[in-house]
Protein: Efflux RND transporter periplasmic adaptor subunit
Amino acid sequence: MKRKVMLYIILTALVVVGGGIGGYFWYEGQNYLTTDDSRLAGDIYKVMPRITGKVTSLQVSEGDHVLADQIIGQQDNNNLPTSSLDQAALRSPIEGTVIKTLVKAGEVSSPGQTVAMVVDTNKLYVSANVEETEIHKVKEGEVVEINLDNFPGKVLLGKVQEISKATASTFSLLPATNTSGNFTKVTQRIPIKISIDDNQGLELSPGISTSIKIHLKGN
Structure:
């Protein structure tokens, strides 16, 4: 008799625990969407020459803060008329942080060639990819929890700002079509852009891996 009672108690406990676990995952699936296919990104601005000439100086290094229209380098202006001397100045288009320099003093640079890249680290956002079978759940304005791989335990808040109208593979250099006669269906991913409400004073950089949790509304 006691054995039957114990067995009944154990089975009941297993059902309750199993139901609780199942209920938890059902609730999570209905109210949240998570993915670790995400990373920090930013609008990168290129510093480009306005004339062809030798770079006589580059006055910044990667990681330096620059102001909008600040001169960060200079090209040889010996053969320029006085009225055009400013054409040899290399200027930053925005206030931000230099994330890459691509020339050295002594090299020749021309219009259309990038000499440096600048990004405003205060305006970084999260670029994430959501599976096409799940994207219908996501709406602009939904709250997002953002976990940063390089700051364990830190959670930033943001909002879904944009949902792309095309899959990520649409912009790939490799074609998505298969002409070999064999076809394997692959779930496509839709890019979304997530704004960051407050970076909490953290030193963030483009490319840092993140994981996100979207708080779904009305699904």
Notes: The chain has two domains: 33-41+124-215, 44-121. Helices lie at 2-31. The mean pLDDT is 87.
